[in-house]
Write a structure and sequence with these properties.
About 40% of the residues lie in helices and about 20% in strands. By secondary structure, it is of the alpha/beta class. It has two domains: about 10-15 and about 235-329, Aspartate Aminotransferase, domain 1 (Alpha-Beta Complex); about 20-230, Type I PLP-dependent aspartate aminotransferase-like (Major domain) (Aspartate Aminotransferase, domain 2, 3-Layer(aba) Sandwich). The relative contact order is 0.19.
Length: about 325
């Protein structure tokens, strides 16, 4: 597959290697059946059987973010507060503010520990966090999640980037009814354009979310492509391994640049600290290289930094060359 050099999109954490050829083939095969709605019964059975769950513990959603939004809307009827360890994905607070009376953002990521989060625990609160976390790439240990589940009324873990890390909290669903996991096919599986995801959790919780959503929000082509992508383990392995190699190259090169500091990331993006991050962001944008500027709006951010997606080697070399020139000037 050939990818254009400009613009270089390193701002939305997409998989630059593309989806599985099997997923593409499955997508086109649905063209003859576009008059039919998708079969969610079979789809839920498909996903649940691969994760060791029951079909009623799986809910297809149009991307993980739409699933999260509807889940938060439903949970706000029973919980007064939501706690979002920060910095965190901007949409968490944007989705929460219309529904919850109190949205609390304790600074916790960037190596600061969990004391501030535990100080806000309570049965009246929902806890929402990502692992790996966007934008820092950090992960939370299972022992900490277990404590969260014991001290908060509901815990939601966004696992949008879990394939890059390789460790999920699916096994905890067997012992805790107050845990919901959000998954997506937009990242490692390369199906961002199809908006396909799903929630995992206790059936009574998902049933309420399902009532608040449309009956077929994930269209048939997305369903079939998602199933094929899920089955193609070799393609996923290639994407994850290639991303890991490129991330290592990227970090090693960045660490050789004066005035640059990186954070360890378990996802397909790297947080990068540079002086005058906003100016560097704008200079990169002027060269049609798009990265994400992380500001205090994300919560828990004392110093703005860049979040840069791990792209192809060609994309990374263009970015690194441009960054070196900008810093030198």
């Amino acid at each position: 597959m050939i990818f254009p050099l400009r613009p270089i999109r390193l701002d939305t954490n997409e998989n630059p290697f593309g989806p599985s050829p099997r997923a593409i083939n499955a997508y086109f095969k649905t063209a003859m059946r576009l008059n039919r709605y998708p079969d969610y019964v079979e789809y839920r059975e498909f996903i649940s059987s691969r994760l060791g769950l029951k079909p009623r513990e799986v809910l297809p959603t149009p991307g993980s973010d739409r699933g999260l939004q509807t889940l938060l809307q439903c949970l706000s009827k029973n919980y007064a507060r939501i706690v979002i360890p920060s910095p965190a994905f901007l949409m968490y607070t944007r989705f929460s503010k219309p529904f919850f009376n109190r949205v609390e953002q304790p600074p916790s990521w960037l190596g600061r520990g969990w004391d501030a989060v535990f100080s806000l625990s309570g049965s009246d609160a929902v806890l929402l966090l990502g692992s790996p976390n966007n934008p820092t790439g950090e992960v939370v240990e299972e022992s900490i999640v277990r404590r969260f589940l014991e001290e908060f009324g509901m815990v939601i873990v966004d696992e949008a980037y879990v394939e890059y890390y390789g460790k999920s909290f699916v096994s905890l669903l067997r012992g805790f009814s107050n845990l919901v996991l959000a998954r997506t096919f937009s990242k490692a599986y390369g199906l961002a354009g199809l908006r396909s995801g799903y929630l995992l959790g206790e059936s009574s919780v998902l049933r309420e979310v399902e009532k608040a959503m449309g009956p077929f929000d994930v269209p048939a082509p997305a369903v079939e492509a998602s199933k094929a992508a899920f089955e193609d383990e070799n393609w996923l392995r290639m994407v994850v391994e290639s991303t890991s190699l490129n991330r290592t190259y990227m970090v090693e090169t960045l660490n050789r640049l004066d005035g640059v500091r990186t954070c360890d990331s378990k996802a397909n993006y790297v947080p990068i600290y540079v002086e005058e991050a906003r100016r560097v962001f704008e200079k990169l944008l002027a060269e049609n290289i798009r990265v994400r500027l992380v500001t205090p709006e994300w919560g828990g951010v004392e110093e703005p930094f860049l979040r840069v997606t791990v792209g192809t080697m060609v994309e990374l070399k263009c970015f690194l060359d441009a960054l070196g020139r900008i810093l030198a000037s």
